[in-house]
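Need a sequence for this fold. Nothing fancy.
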């Protein structure tokens, strides 16, 4: 057989012009960097290049061997989706109502301490970006921006306040009153911190509050001049609600937090707080049931992003069991390990009422301040919408447990033995 002959012609100038329409380069380096980040992992890589090691590690790190965080992320990677075919979902609605208010997306911003360390825009960037996206923002007790300044940054959006009960109860109660006066609508009472987790990266980096310069920090600063310029030319980095006497964040937590808090404290806080009361850091089915029966407005299944008890249960694994016990009417939120919109979709399918993101937004913040947080939210929004469309589901209410299988290599020994015996 003879080869067919390819017909050739001289290049047509008009076709060449078409090919050579180069995009004008964006001269704004931050915008360029953010636009080229397609995933939260990409934002993390930019964040790592731009932020001093001690600050990046404080954010990125977890406790002890960092097993809780690694397992939580792996649990999301092990999701298997079951799409419904031939069900057009051309337009998807990602909005929902949670704790008596609206959210444009099924996630909000989790409380994070010392946020201005990551980028000088800190909580103001997080709160204003959340407001613009129509999602709630949570300010931490260990925040570096005051309650009132967060309200000013997000005056029309939903602000939530996270409470640590301190040894000096009056300090905590004063914060609760101020948050109520500033119109915050929800209080997240964190209960997984009777003592600080062992954040070994902070210890190894000699990271202290307020930051101290060492030869290592100075050398590490050289390739990151802009972070240091911002740091030195903006108001001193300190907690907006506490005074620090030096030491790591762990040392500060141990000195300030009351290790004796118990179920009895719930009643006191309930009496002080006029809005919705949520308990954050629930890690067993038993506690979830007890809290819902005690009348709290919601719970967050969380192991604090793996920063407290290492080898704690994976919140995403706990989710279906908790929802089965407390029912779908209870507000059950989940966090820890969320790095992709699909993680959020899977959580909603398994009965979560809402989700929270910590590091995912902080990587954006470190990568580019307010614009970086906008980018992180936009990435997650696109991923949620795309995943829902690929699943053939157009509303969050349409997501069901049948859409998800949790594949898992981590099975409690008792279950493994039972499974083996049943075989
Ligand atoms: C840098 C950092 C600081 C945090 N500070 C607080 C805090 O002050 N109070 C609190 O309740 N949780 C705090 N958390 C935990 C988050 O609220 C949230 O539970 C966790 O980040 C979720 O995991 P993720 O980072 O994998 O999304 C912090 C988390 C990080 C990463």
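Here you go.
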């Amino acid at each position: 057989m003879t080869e067919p002959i390819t017909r050739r012609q001289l290049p047509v100038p008009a076709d060449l012009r078409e090919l050579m329409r180069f995009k004008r380069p964006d001269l704004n380096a931050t915008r360029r960097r953010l636009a080229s980040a397609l995933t939260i992992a990409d934002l993390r890589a930019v964040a790592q290049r731009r932020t001093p090691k001690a600050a990046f590690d404080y954010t990125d790190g977890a406790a002890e061997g960092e097993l809780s965080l690694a397992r939580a992320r792996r649990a999301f990677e092990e999701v298997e989706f079951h799409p419904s075919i031939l069900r057009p979902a051309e337009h998807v609605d990602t909005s929902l109502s949670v704790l008596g208010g609206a959210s444009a997306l099924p996630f909000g911003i989790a409380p994070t301490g010392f946020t201005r360390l990551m980028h000088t825009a800190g909580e103001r960037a997080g709160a204003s970006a959340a407001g613009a996206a129509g999602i709630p923002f949570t300010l931490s007790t260990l925040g570096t921006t005051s309650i009132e300044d967060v309200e000013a940054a997000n005056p029309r959006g939903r602000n939530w306040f996270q409470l640590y009960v301190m040894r000096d109860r009056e300090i905590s109660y004063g914060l609760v009153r101020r948050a109520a006066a500033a119109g915050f609508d929800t209080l997240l009472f964190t209960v997984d911190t009777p003592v600080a987790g062992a954040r070994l990266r902070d210890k190894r980096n000699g990271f202290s509050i307020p930051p101290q310069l060492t030869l290592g920090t100075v050398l590490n600063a050289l390739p990151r001049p802009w972070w240091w310029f911002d740091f030195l030319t903006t108001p001193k980095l300190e907690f907006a609600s506490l005074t620090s006497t030096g030491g790591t964040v762990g040392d500060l937590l141990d000195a300030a937090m009351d290790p004796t808090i118990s179920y009895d404290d719930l009643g006191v806080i309930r009496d002080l707080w006029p809005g919705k009361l949520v308990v954050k850091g629930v890690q067993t089915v038993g506690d979830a049931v007890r809290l819902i029966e005690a009348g709290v407005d919601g719970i967050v299944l969380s192991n604090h992003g793996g920063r407290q008890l290492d080898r704690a249960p994976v919140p995403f694994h706990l989710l279906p069991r908790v929802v089965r016990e407390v029912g779908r009417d209870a507000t059950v939120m989940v966090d820890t390990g969320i790095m992709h919109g699909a993680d959020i979709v899977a959580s909603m399918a398994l009965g979560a009422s809402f989700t929270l993101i910590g590091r995912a937004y902080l990587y954006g913040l470190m990568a580019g301040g307010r614009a970086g947080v906008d980018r992180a939210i936009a990435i997650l929004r696109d991923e949620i919408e795309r995943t829902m469309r690929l699943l053939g589901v157009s509303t969050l209410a349409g997501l069901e447990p049948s859409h998800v299988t949790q594949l898992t290599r981590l099975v409690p020994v008792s279950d493994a033995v039972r499974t083996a015996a049943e075989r």
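For context: The CA atoms of residues 170 and 366 lie 34 Å apart.
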